[in-house]
Specification:
Layout lengths: L1 E6 L5 H12 L14 H14 L1 E6 L6 E8 L9 E9 L8 H16 L5 E7 L3 H9 L3 E2 L3 E10 L2 E12 L29 E5 L8
Helix pairs in contact: 1-2
């Protein structure tokens, strides 16, 4: 069956909240607790992504429930206009370790390479104990850029009460400085987001359970 990957829309807000809250109950599933996944938090991420970033969702092929989401957006200061930051990826616990996270993440990077010449750098942060994630990020082209020592409060963790955050970055080989960018390379902005192909749908054939998340 084909997983549907598409750009998020404002109507996805309650479904993304549900996805985040479900995943937050899993230890290590997301940095925030379930109580910290508020409508304001998710809405903020969506609005920033619609404005100058990207937000993709993975939709179950039979019941249309959202089973994954990924987003990133530009930081506020103009001097970071070539950067997409605050990258977050969430995969529903029932659908993890099935290749969905890899597909939606690589699709995000492909969209940036092919449609966002204004972006040079994509950055994320992973906690040091998440070896699997760090290895995966390196495999798809991210580089470790240092350590934020004792940044994460992690009681009873394998590194004691605190552990480091690991900053990582990926660079767009198709970046074009603005003074070299041809006019009209971007289409007119849409009402709620500024991306190239707002109606594009990407599919992949993955074997996933038929049960609802």
């Amino acid at each position: 069956m084909s997983i549907i990957i598409r750009h998020a829309t404002p109507t996805d807000l309650p479904h993304i909240i549900k996805l985040y809250q479900t995943t937050a109950q899993l230890t290590g599933g997301i940095a925030r607790t379930k109580n910290e996944i508020t409508e304001q938090y998710v809405s903020h991420n969506l609005q920033r992504s619609f404005k100058n970033g990207i937000c993709l969702v993975a939709q179950h092929p039979t019941n249309n429930n959202l089973i994954a989401e990924i987003h990133c957006y530009k930081p506020e200061p103009k001097l970071f206009d070539h950067v997409l930051s605050e990258l977050t990826i969430v995969v529903h616990p029932s659908f993890q370790a099935q290749g969905i996270g890899k597909f939606i993440f690589t699709q995000l990077l492909s969209i940036i390479e092919n449609t966002r010449p204004d972006i040079l750098r994509v950055e994320l942060i992973a906690r040091e104990s998440n070896h699997k994630a760090i290895k995966f990020y390196q495999k798809i082209g991210f580089n470790i850029e240092g350590r934020f020592e004792k940044r994460v409060h992690s009681p009873n963790g394998i590194y004691g009460n605190f552990e480091a955050d690991i900053p990582m970055a990926w660079f767009n080989k198709n970046y074009t400085p603005k003074h070299l960018t041809l006019p009209q390379i971007h289409p007119p902005p849409l009402p709620y987001h500024n991306i190239y192909y707002p109606n594009a749908v990407y599919k992949t054939s993955l074997s996933i359970p038929q049960n609802k998340p």
